[in-house]
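Structure first, sequence second, as always.
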């Protein structure tokens, strides 16, 4: 393991702006640098450069959840009944029933196909619904067992759709053919998934994150311990981070060396190999931290928030690193540019599509 050094130098980040947004579900980032945020009753567009609100629209349902952005730039928010799509200027472009009870955000496939997780209208079985970009119902797959399916599905590069089910007996990972919804295989999970479980598509596989544990699927449906490659950041804490140079960082450092145990939230990596996280040092409030490719931690000023495993990692856009915190957003300038390689940001890419790029 390479030692993570707490450098004396301060973080190069300086506060650019902060914006209060109450009761955030989550946010998605468009290629134009606009953050789209839902709070359950309102969809708000925030300029990532300034933090200013560009527009806000009352939603047709108070059950709207985490948005995704399709390839046409429409912002899609889900409700228990289905989906609502808004244009980049806030106009409602379409709404469509999913003919099921939606329980989580959809994955977005090619041609803006949406894959919703949920349960049947009778609420007696888990179900996945596929809807075309033209809002036509393509297929529905109903699982035999009564279960909960609330985690965002993951769409792998080979067209396999992965979903995670939870029932009284535990957890199950299921692979579906995204073209017709037919079941390819299933595998038992060591613990039942919940809303914080993450499915991260990588190639023809999926990484299953249950807490801080990682498992990888194989094409035959077997699960094995995940061995970190050069393109994945496992978060909740800085448990595993492998940069192109082979740097490895773990959250718990060697206590015999009297180095701090960093409690950190999810992070983001820039094109230069720098990792941006918010951390709590021993007997210290939350701080912004920049970890450079040599393992040095550059510590920023104290912040009035602590890292939260349930919040997503930050966005990188135009030299800013933007954190979603409990009361809104906080942006710091002085960051590098995003590397554009589809690094995991808690729930897939910045558009929240959870599709392998």
């Amino acid at each position: 393991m390479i030692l993570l050094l707490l450098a004396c130098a301060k973080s190069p980040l300086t506060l650019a702006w902060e914006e209060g947004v109450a009761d955030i579900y989550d946010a998605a980032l468009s290629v134009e640098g606009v953050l789209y945020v839902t709070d359950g009753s309102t969809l708000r567009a925030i300029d990532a450069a300034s933090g200013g609100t560009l527009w806000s629209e009352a939603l047709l349902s108070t059950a709207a959840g985490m948005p995704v952005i399709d390839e046409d730039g429409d912002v899609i928010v889900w409700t228990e009944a289905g989906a609502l799509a808004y244009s980049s200027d806030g106009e409602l472009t379409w709404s469509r029933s999913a003919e099921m009870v939606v329980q989580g955000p959809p994955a977005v496939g090619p041609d803006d196909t949406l894959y919703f997780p949920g349960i049947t209208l009778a609420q007696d079985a888990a179900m996945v619904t596929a809807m075309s970009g033209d809002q036509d119902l393509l297929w529905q797959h109903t699982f035999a067992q009564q279960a909960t399916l609330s985690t965002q599905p993951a769409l792998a590069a080979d067209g396999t759709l992965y979903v995670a089910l939870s029932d009284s007996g535990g957890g199950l990972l299921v692979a579906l053919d995204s073209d017709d919804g037919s079941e390819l295989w299933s595998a038992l999970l060591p613990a039942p998934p919940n809303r914080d479980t993450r499915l991260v598509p990588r190639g023809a596989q999926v990484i299953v994150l249950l807490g801080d544990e990682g498992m990888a699927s194989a094409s035959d449906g077997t699960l094995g311990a995940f061995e970190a490659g050069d393109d994945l950041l496992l978060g909740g804490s800085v448990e595993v981070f492998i940069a192109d140079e082979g740097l490895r960082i773990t959250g718990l450092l060697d206590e015999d060396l009297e180095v701090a145990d960093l409690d950190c939230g999810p992070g983001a990596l820039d094109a230069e190999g720098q990792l941006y996280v918010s951390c709590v040092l021993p007997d210290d409030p939350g701080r912004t931290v920049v970890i450079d490719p040599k393992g040095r931690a550059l510590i920023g000023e104290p912040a009035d928030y602590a890292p939260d495993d349930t919040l997503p990692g930050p966005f990188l856009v135009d030299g800013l690193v933007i954190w979603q915190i409990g009361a809104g957003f906080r942006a710091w300038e002085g960051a590098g540019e995003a590397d554009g390689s589809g690094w995991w940001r808690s729930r897939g890419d910045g558009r929240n599509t959870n599709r392998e790029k």
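Margin note: Residues 171 and 191 are 6 Å apart (CA to CA).
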